[in-house]
Amino acid sequence: MGCLDEGQFNVELENGVSIGCAELDVKEEESNAAIEDAVKVLLLGLGEDINREGLKKTPLRVTKALREGTRGYRQKVKDIVEGALFPEAGVDNKTGHAGGAGGLVIVRDLDLYSYCESCLLPFQVKCHVGYVPSGQRVVGLSKLSRVADIFARRLQEPQRLADEVCSALHQGIKPAGVAITLQCTHIHFPDIESVFLDSNHQGWTKVHVFSGSGVFENKNADVWADFFSLLKFRGINTEKFHFRSASDKCWCPSQSTLSAKVCSKIGPVNPVMVTAVASILKSLGEDPLRKELVGTPVRFVTWLMNFQNSNMEMKLNGFLCGGIGSLKANGEVNLNDKQVCSEMNLPFWSQCEHHLLPFHGVVHIGYLISEGFSPIGKTLLQSIVHFHGFKLQVQERLTRQIAETISALLGGDVIVVVEASHTCMISRGIEKFGSSTATIAVLGRFSTDPSSRAMFLQSIPSSATSSGGQ
Q1: Where's the GTP cyclohydrolase I domain (predicted)?
Q2: Which of 43, 184, 265, 393 has its CA 20 to 30 A from that of 76?
């Protein structure tokens, strides 16, 4: 199973602090102030004005989000499990069979999230927990979710998360066995250079892992067949689950071959920013020198530099200047002769300036052109989307900027709809899994002609937002 040994894990259950983590003996107010100062260093390193209206409270908001996302370091499994164990007649020390007395109990489809220890980006988790009761003892079902959440609210990687939840429940409940399966989804954020070279970029990395104790210790045990059969009722493809070993490659995209090539092009990262990230890790109760975290500050800064405040408008103007003249007509244009053109589902990736957390989705663009004029190429529109996406942003501004840029090309009539999923909706305690946000910007005739606007909106494909669902 690869879990912590029993003696060490008992310490974990009692103290609520991961083995090897720094002692949490610094007052929370002081550590929060240290995180806020570190966030200011990161913003300055991106070339941002920390007194800009949209960024004034960003250090505070980021600190609150990180505290919420790593609250598991300050929680104790023992406090949750003790008092939630109940006697149940018919449950003895023998191993039951699924459906029989003392048989298998499963809680499915627990939505969790965690922070990836390799890159500090949040990842989503669909968790399924099962155990076989013994000793005339069952546990309140809600406690299975709460224990899983404690370990998810720490810097994690999928297999260790599964192992730690499995060990905690086995130690706390003393069942005949525990089974944990996780479906983990990690956003694969492209850098601004590679995204133009890879039109088929996959926005997600997925992995399926499982862990077992007791009667589930043997991965070929019959009880696993019972467990997976009950998962199949939910349409879950259990063939993808496997025990990960030390030889398996790290699942985090930040450690992929492509990311390594990008890092080599970027060159040395700002050491002050790297030190700031290490300070954040320590303030959260982690040990920046833990072997899994040694390279994390560099990887996080490398990723964050995709959103540095460079003169994107100048780059964009230089990129577009060759195409503006050929798109505009000379003289008067009759609005009645115009036709609606559209481009749907243009992917984008961006970074919320309020919480420094990713948001992503698709952009739908509609515009009017006169008869005889050629539509704008998809590549050009996608470039406009990417240029405005790779900044510290808010969705409303992103929508407006895309619309205004295209309007400058065409001289007027544009409608833009942005559909996005925001990581901050699941990683700040809100936990609105699967939610999405839509924003709209209208210019020219689209702002005054309801029929043209309605025609475009009705043409948007349903369920267009890429949510990275499990």
Answers
A1: 35-187, 275-460
A2: 184
